[in-house]
Specification:
heterodimer; A: alpha/beta; 9 helices; 25% strand; B: mainly alpha; two-stranded antiparallel ribbon; two-stranded antiparallel sheet; 13 helices
Chain lengths: 240, 343
Amino acid sequence: MSAPLLQTSGLTIRFGGVTAVDGVDFTLKESELRCLIGPNGAGKSTFFKLLTGQLHPSEGHVHLRGQDISGARPHEIARQGVGIKTQVPNVFNALSVQENLWIAARHKHTPGFATELTEKILTQLHLTGIATKEVGQLAHGQRQWVEIGTVLAGEPELILLDEPAAGMTHEEVERTAELILEINKSRALIVVEHDMQFIKMIARTVTVLHQGAVLIEDDVARVLEDARVRDVYLGKGLAA
Amino acid sequence: MHLLNGMIGALVGSAVAAAFILTAPLYVDLFQIMQLTVFAAMAVLALSLGFIWGYGGILCFGQTSFFGLGAYAYAVSAINFGDSTPAILLAILVPVIFAALLGYFMIYGGISDVYLGVITLTVSLILFNLVNSTAGDFYKIGDARLGGFNGMPGVPTFNLPGNPGYILTPEQAWMVTGIALILVYLGLRLLIASSFGRIIIAIRENETRAALLGYDPRIYKLITFMIGGAIAGFAGALYVNWGAFVSPTIFALGLSAQIIIWVIIGGRGTLIGPVIGCLLLQWMVTEIGAQQALDANFILGAILIVFVLLVPKGIAPTLRDLVMLRLGQEKTAPPEVSVKVKT
């Protein structure tokens, strides 16, 4: 059997005395869609930063298709086919929407093809109307879409989305959910989200992080019924 | 399309400027031609910082390091070879190598922007002191005595390529310097319009995002820094050609600060801005220098403060915004744009 798309083993990072991610073993199959939930401070965004090389693990490893990428730099991991939409939008503010996507597409493609691909994604995401607008001038929800578009334009094989529905209206959330299912037809995704309605729209398998460690990993229905998960979210606390 | 329009504007402007440069000796006296020549050489230096700071986001406080190294490299090789052509090439090559080494340690060492400014400034001051202490017969390269604080007088000026016997007249040197300024300007415009240019602007905007898309910000920044060094070194050769003289003051703090003021006042994030800022301020300083009532540095400082407070974007971007606003009002009013910032 070939190696899974993504596998972490004993992934740990400590900041001084705080262990933000604590021995996480996580496996993602090819073209899987996984939701990652957990209360604030559970280590979800830190986990993403470890996967993308923005932080380097204190212990443990990240393997992408069997290749060890722990300790690699962000641009090296991006070249291996991992794209991320970060929690706080990371976009090129002074550039137009079109230019943001073009820069992403240009990495793999010739300028001409990058322009074509950009047009395609602009249409897919209904961004054509604001294509020439400066991204710094856009509302938060639109900036999120621009960043998702930028990630898609990079044509990664694994897409990490950190709170893609945050700050969006109800219709935008529904469109985002549809988009994620659409993307998942050809690519694997890991989605971090707080919005349970949103999770119910897209989730199959859900991993719950709590205090840096995996609390439970199961089918979405079972996870949402789980007493421990409810405790964690209601803030009763759980003796570690 | 937008890009193409901008490029046409640049070409038309350059053609007008070139026509002036080539005809100026007919109606401008020699003294003023000489003045314009040094202004143009300095404008090339202003472009080098305008490029790396305005587009690459690298605030180099010691752009004079490369300017001075280029000037000295030109002077030393022109004296030794007796031919300006290889000397000009070395005036570009030596600063590029120096920029590559310095830039490598700073950029790959992960030095933050502020410290990069401090380090580059310090390097220019070290070079100043180093060259300043090269008086005496001991310090010579080939036939060229470095001369310490007295500098190097009598440096051969530009000759026709391949014909060292034919020295350019001051009018011809002016044309060469003026046209060189236009070519550097157009070259940088093309570079910015290219994929490389788009990518360095993207890195300036958000280094993290660029890295997460697979671009290594370090190599792009290093190349940008080296291009800035090459242009500053070339400006150094143009400067020595103007005065046939170079001294360590070329590395001194005063000039380092002036270049930054040119770029701030002319407008960061444009190329024409630094050129305008440089020409305007040099002209003003010369005019002020002709009278005794007010000190030039005092006026320069006052202008800088006024600009930082009232025209923070600088001349060129402010003018551009005004024109865009007028054009926009004639067509349709721009739609209201709401900006929400997540806290």
